[in-house]
Amino acid sequence: MPAEPQDDRAPVSLLKGRIIAGFSLALVIALSAYLLMSASRAGNQAFASLWFLAVFPAYLCALICYVGDPAGTRSRNFYVSVPPILVGLVIFGSAAFLGEGIICLVMLSPIWLIFGLIGAFSVRRMRRRRDDAASFHASLLFLPLLAGSVESQIPVPHDTVTLTRSVIVNASPAEIWPYAVSNTHIGKDEGRWTFSQSVLGLPRPRATVLDRPGVGGVRTAYWSEGIDFQERVTAWQPGRRLAWRFAFTNSSLQHHTDEHIAPDGPFLKIDTGDYRLTPLPDGTTRLTLTTNYVAITHVNLYAHWWGELLLGDIQDNVLAVVKQRAEVRHEAR
């Protein structure tokens, strides 16, 4: 009798089932960690921890690969594909169901991809060596707890960062000064294109109103999406320098950008700023905008890179508005 054909679909289905199980388990763990951190008093600090940004994605991707490739026979492409798929699922789920802001998700993606790859290929290497399986199994259970416990004992650095942008304005300091002090009815077409505001959708300034001139005055900045905050004047030198201290009297900025990134919170404090107007020999003026903030995390170097991009884009746009208005006034004379 002829042999019955063999059904080779079962092993394939089993492997697919293991992969789905690995991703499902990882997503359940990620959601559980998110809910625990959100409910904790130190939740926002935890979202900016080295554990959450580096160890956690490495662990999740290692777990998926461990469950999805039990025999260690899958190709390199499988291990390469796990981190971007996991990050994509996390971003989609966080935006669609958890209401996370774009800033948090964009900042999360690159570092999760990098450490996810590290976790995935650590599993691949261990599986191929097969020389210490018991220790490897134990590490998947205890590594996250151990890493979190160790990090909690490390003092958190407080780094003061100064962010500066400049622009050359074809106008005198006296012509620029009124627009450095206040601006009303800033149109959507004013300013310049920036990645943070034009692509990521960060809000743009709509007006800055000063209640009275001089030290002690309060400039209220109004941005799109119903955002407002205060800049309390600490230095007033007409045509030369205007300085202020930020005061975030409501949560409008945090609510729109990201609930975990408060501008005056546990790991970020946007502190002071100033304009400096420097006349140049050719009759133009260098207008410099400086913002000082304090970063309080174990990943300050990574946070500084994002601050340079996001806050730098905001500064560039503000300077462009002042430049455009001052040059129109200069040409009209």
UniProtKB/TrEMBL annotation:
The chain crosses the membrane at residues 19-40, 46-66, 78-99, 105-123. This is Polyketide cyclase / dehydrase and lipid transport. The keyword GTP-binding does not apply. Gene3D superfamilies: 3.30.530.20. Keywords: Membrane, Transmembrane, Transmembrane helix. It holds the Pfam family Polyketide_cyc2. SUPFAM superfamilies: Bet v1-like (SSF55961).
